[in-house]
Design a protein that fits this description.
Elements (H helix, E strand, L loop, with lengths): L4 E3 L1 H8 L8 H17 L1 E5 L5 H15 L3 H4 L12 E3 L7 H4 L1 H9 L16 E6 L25 H26 L8 H4 L5 E2 L2 E4 L9 E6 L5 E4 L7 E4 L5 E3 L7 E5 L1 H6 L9 E4 L2 H12 L5 E4 L1 E4 L6 E2 L17 E2 H11 L10
Parallel strand pairs: 1-2
Antiparallel strand pairs: 2-11, 3-4, 4-5, 4-6, 5-14, 6-13, 7-12, 8-11, 8-14, 9-10, 9-12, 15-16
Protein name: Non-haem dioxygenase N-terminal domain-containing protein
GO molecular function, one term: metal ion binding
Keywords: Iron, Metal-binding, Oxidoreductase
């Protein structure tokens, strides 16, 4: 199955126009299509004219250079005292939820063989770098979720590249959030108003394919994301699988110049389960091995970098079903709770307070 691509250009043109603030029928249809796809698949491919393939390449080039540095250099940016919320997280620290969640493990037994995920045996084989994107609140109950950034030595372009790509991806998420809200029959700013000053994280991962290249090797074990929406640029090595709402397992192909958006737990909460947090994993496949062979022939880096950004609801904002979703028969499964408290509850399950695990 190929995920459809939604071009954001026309919505952006409409939202920037002062002459006619009303959306036409075709744009309303596009918004309904966005909400439908998020509901049915938990994933959406978008093309945003503000986020070019060159922007993604510039970011990945820098991260490949960083991750290829010696481990002792990278560990200088490690901040375990801040629960790895900023700086680097070494390989072997992030634990996939499916390794510790007994309910999820029971679910595996009921899945058809062709739809089962790879079963993790331990922590993920990936490094991660956490970089805060956007302003933080001056007063918050959740200081640990809003820490200052760490910049590695020898990368004078670091802050500019991280901030530039991070802001562009957040901007794309905000447009999708607006379109989804309209498609769900909510006010346009129903989601984006709650995202203001959220603890958004640009959190690229790096996996060393020169060491880990056997088919079936797990880089990100089967899990969902605990935030609102997750966005990725295109990786240079395939291996991402998602699970549709009907249980079907799908290999994701991100076209050049496109971005992948995935639903997280916070949008599930806000829609009372109309959208559910999308399950996914990243593993070495035969196509990954083909890409490794080509990279070797072209003398390119063998680090698999994901340009992942976690977009969050503001930590002090209340998570609860919005608008018509408050009347849903499932609304009682999603009681009101501060978003930051919900994040901490989710993290306590995987025993890594202050840290997400994602692709």
């Amino acid at each position: 199955m190929e995920l459809p691509v939604v071009d954001l250009s026309r919505y952006l043109q409409s939202s920037n126009s002062e002459s006619d603030p009303q959306l036409g029928t075709d744009l309303l249809d596009s918004c309904r299509e966005v909400s439908r796809i998020l509901k049915e698949t938990g994933a959406l491919l978008v093309k945003d004219p503000r986020c070019s393939a060159e922007d993604n390449d510039r970011f990945i080039d820098m991260m490949e250079t960083y991750f290829s540095k010696p481990d002792e250099f990278k560990r200088l940016q490690e901040r375990p005292n801040l629960h790895y919320q900023v700086g680097v997280t070494p390989e072997g620290v992030e634990v996939p939820r499916s390794l510790v969640d007994e309910e999820m493990q029971e679910k595996f037994k009921t899945m058809r063989n062709e739809c089962k995920p790879h079963i993790p045996k331990g922590p993920d084989h990936k490094w991660r770098y956490m970089w805060r994107v956007g302003p933080r609140p001056s007063n918050t109950r959740f200081k640990e979720l809003n820490s200052e950034p760490v910049i590695p030595e020898g990368f004078p372009e670091w802050k500019e590249v991280m901030d530039s790509w991070g802001y562009k991806m957040i901007s794309a998420v905000e447009v999708v959030a607006e379109m989804a809200a309209i498609g769900f029959g909510l006010p346009k700013d129903a989601f984006t108003s709650l995202m203001k000053q959220g603890p958004h994280l640009l959190a690229p991962t790096g996996s060393d394919l020169s060491c880990y290249n056997e088919e079936g090797t797990i880089f990100a074990g089967y899990h969902y994301d605990l935030n609102f929406l997750t966005i990725h640029g295109r990786s240079r090595f395939p291996g991402l699988y998602i699970w549709l709402r009907n249980g079907e397992k799908v290999a994701v192909k991100v076209p050049v110049g496109c971005l992948l958006i995935q639903t997280g737990k916070q949008i599930e909460w806000l829609t009372a389960g109309e959208c559910i947090a999308g399950m996914h994993e990243v593993v070495v496949t035969s196509k990954t091995k083909d890409a490794i062979k080509l990279a070797k022939e072209q003398n390119r880096s063998l680090w698999r970098v994901s340009s992942t950004l976690f977009a969050h609801i503001a930590s002090d904002a209340e998570l609860k079903p919005l608008g018509r979703f408050a009347e849903s028969s499932l609304a009682s499964n999603y009681p009101a709770i501060p978003a930051g408290e919900h994040v901490e509850q989710e993290l306590s399950v995987i025993n890594l307070k202050g840290k997400e695990s994602s692709s």
